[in-house]
Amino acid sequence: MTESPLPWPKLSSRHDPSLILFRPRWDRLVNPRTSQPMERLVLETPDWVNVVALTDEDELVLVKQFRFGTSRVTIEIPGGMVDRGESHADAARRELREETGYEARAWRYLGAVEPNPAFHDNLCHHWLATGCKRVSEHLELDAGEDIVVYREPLASVAERVRAGEIRHVLVHSALQRVVDLFGVSGARRAD
Amino acid sequence: MTESPLPWPKLSSRHDPSLILFRPRWDRLVNPRTSQPMERLVLETPDWVNVVALTDEDELVLVKQFRFGTSRVTIEIPGGMVDRGESHADAARRELREETGYEARAWRYLGAVEPNPAFHDNLCHHWLATGCKRVSEHLELDAGEDIVVYREPLASVAERVRAGEIRHVLVHSALQRVVDLFGVSGARRAD
To answer: How far apart are CA A7 and CA A71, in angstroms?
Structure first.
């Protein structure tokens, strides 16, 4: 394994209902089964993109970063939010360049998933980028990012997924459209 | 297709930062790259479970429900939150029984994923339940649920995933450990 970003020292912690990544909205709805009105929460969220970025040597371009939700350094594929007015195709190219310094020879759309239709209103779009090459050593990181970029053979990454070292479901979802992560070819039985 | 739950009429909508499904927490952290302190949001979230529930006829037990985030009726596998003090194994059995009225002959753990390590601190545990049979016509639904249960052959559900009719990434993630949803056997090329 390569170098890893450092864990972020925690100075303090407080509970506060204001948010940044999302815009919380309460909808007042009627349950048609009971005719009972109730309020339900929606976190309005911009669409997300992530990128399966392969070099000509069949290596994946990966990012390691400290994640605030789980307080752990994760291995992920590059990705981020689609900016207002930006297409998800453009966002995929921008995130790859900003987060890794790589550009690709060819792009193919892999489809979209709902991160969680219970409370998010957004999609995460998956892209495949091939023929990736590093074009810049300079990463355009914002103040909230500290990223280490590295490459790893695709087969080895699939092994890390099976071993539970890579657990981000949106990373699995994108990779799964390129490689059969779990080696299943039909239904498996529990009994 | 079978009957579908009705869309829920919206009476009104308001923005309010208070939450129920999560407990928002702001952590004050230092970015080791810049030594700059900053606040980052964590949504403290209970673990989730979902269940790939198969009958002896290789049919999946599925639930249709109106989802508030996307304002659409979705097709999903049964699942929900792990209660405080409950094991995820027990939660899987409980959610299957409460949401569908089914019980299983055998259970096998399929592993866990991080729904989003950027802001959630939880895991979603996937379970495979086989030999499923309906033991009750009565569903134990809370006031916020209106669910239609039906069965569909596993192969036909995989086709729905490929067609984009089933898009919930946590549903894909569980199913993917039982059947190769996207029919990939190695890396695919964009060029």
So the answer is: 8
Token pair listed for B28: 């004050």
| Contact (Cβ atoms closer than 8 angstroms) between residue A52 and residue B182 | no
Please tell me the distance from the alpha carbon of residue B65 to that of residue B166, in angstroms, as a whole number: 12
Contact flag A19-B15 (C-beta cutoff 8 Å)? no
Tokens linked to B174? 């569980």
Q: A174 to chain B: nearest residue by CA?
A: B169
Which residues of B are less than 8 Å from A123 in CB distance? 167
**SS3 call for B178:** coil
Among the partner residues A18, A31, A42, nearest to B69 by beta-carbon distance: A42
Of B68, B119, B180, the CB nearest to A68: B119
Per-residue pLDDT of chain B (191 residues; tens, 9 = 90+): 567 777 777 676 666 555 667 888 888 888 888 888 888 888 999 999 999 999 999 999 999 999 999 999 999 999 999 999 999 999 999 999 999 999 999 999 999 999 999 999 999 999 999 999 999 988 888 777 889 999 999 999 999 999 999 999 999 999 999 998 998 854 444 44
Six-digit token string for A79? 């990705």
Is residue A168 within 8 A of residue A160, CB to CB? The reply is: no
DSSP one-letter code for A78 = S
In angstroms, the Cα distances linking A141 to A49, A145, B55 are 17, 6, 50
Are B186 and A169 within 8 A, CB to CB? Answer: no
Q: What domains does chain B contain, in order, with CATH numbers?
A: 39-176 (3.90.79.10)
**Inter-chain CB proximity B41 and A58 less than 8 Å:** no
CB contact under 8 Å between B190 and A38, yes or no, is no
